[in-house]
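Consider this record:
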Amino acid sequence: MKLHSRILASAVSVVLLASACNSTPDANSFIVSGEINVESGTIYLQGFRNKMFFVTDSAVIENGKFSFTGSLERSDLFGLTLDREETFSPYYIFLENSAITVKIDTESKRRRAEITGSATNDLFTAYQRADHRTFRIDSFIAANPASPVSAYILYRDYSYQLTREEIDTYVQRLDPSLQDLEYVQTLKELSVTLEKVAIGQPAPDFSSFTPEGEEITLSSRLGNGYVLIDFWASWCGPCRRDNPNIVRVYNDYHAKGFDVFSVSLDEKRDAWLKGIEDDHLTWTHVSDVLFWDSAPAKLYGVRGIPANFLVDKDGVIVAKNLHGEELEKAMAELLK
């Protein structure tokens, strides 16, 4: 049976645990032998898609040990968690068809497992430990064009801050063997989307649901001045820190023709509503509560939040990603 994220796997039973830990996989399979400072319980192997993790397998922890076996078409990113519902911060691991050992210290604040036996994960660990003030994604791709780590980093950590032209350039530098990888396909789609939501283009219309359950369209809020389409989430620290700035600008300029249309990428409705209340956000709010599968976020090519688009009364995008003083200066100029 083929499971999510191109993994063929099944949980190893307790009876087979001892022998599995001493086995050597063939060239088309992997064995993960793990140690964790938890005596018993269940550990989950999660596949990665669209900046989220989803359970693909589980194994029993016995005397602080666990094991997974399976087969991969290519090396890819997975996560290990003790909580089935954990989608945010698992222990990251790039699996490949080899014998891999994992040591997890749940008390460590670094939230990283000690992993050996996966060359792909070694490269990912090197990236994590790099000085990101001087790190260059173009140099990394040039040195590792055929590694899925290059595609993942470009997709996960850089796509939201690159132009369409830069994305196209970097994707072309990746090895042809990676072109069908989900990360790369998403980047290609993003390039097309960014052209559609560039400054000067009409803002794509969409509908979503208010906290009261009413379905409304963006277009129903346009035509009376400037509208800031604000993508945020209650779990997003930078978003919450920017909210007081938006509140201040809204209070100062709403009567002059400025409005906000907030789109949440929350996955839990209660958390979304609490964030609205706690931050005193008194304008229109919508969400499909689908986390990174948010349809409006995909429509606008949003790969990182906070993100926003300023739209004029004619429905044309006139500015993007105005935060802090930038938003206030823009409205002072436009509504003077």
